[in-house]
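Okay, can you check this protein?
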Amino acid sequence: MLKGQFVLPVWLDYTAAFLFAITGGLVAFEKDYDLTGLAAMALAVGLGGGIIRDGIFLQQIPAAVEDWRYLAAVLAAVVITLTLGNFIEKRLGLVILLADAMGLGLYAVVGAQKSIFLGLSVYAAGLIGLVNAVGGGLLRDVLSREDPIVFRPGQLYGVVAIVGVTVFLALGVGFRTPAWVAAVVCIAVTFVLRVVTIRFDIHTHPVHAHAVRGAVVSGYRGLAGRLRDKDKPEETPETEPEEPPGP
């Protein structure tokens, strides 16, 4: 019964592949890649998350290999990038972020849904949904020689994907909400959270800058200093020699 409830239209997967392919193509456009480089980047980013999901975690033939419409979605993204690249160049960063935010929720939903449909646990579905969501962006950053956005300090990314996939599984599994309703809510929540973090610059900090770590280090140094002081022998104050009495 649970499996039947978690059936989502396959066009969600096509849409996610298309959006991530757009982000890959726009990054290639920004870096002045040639046509081959742009197409390869769009292909890797658009289909990479799904291939990781199906080939590694679900032990299946990747859907992108069996269904030509995935490749058609990537080709459409390449054509749009080539056609509108100059028009959106001034807003390139914003367009990439918005497309990535929408694709993040879509791939989180698709990855979790496929896992539940195959009878995997909720924990496994959440993990695969998360990997599916961030996999394309990870490949995009690695191939463009950038530090992956999911690793470096900045606006929340992986956390947003975790929240989205949790919402989807909580609604679909916990409350038995129809799969398409849970999917729409997850995609909306993920997109809104991602946009809010960008708009208000809600970001993470480097590990060495965290207050908790600073307090621990300061406490450790203070304790070490006190122990060193305790082990030192007490020094008797030196007395100045008395001056001889005057004549």
User: Anything to note?
Assistant: The CA atoms of residues 213 and 219 lie 10 Å apart. The chain has one domain: 2-207. The chain has a mean pLDDT of 84. Residues 2-207 form one domain.
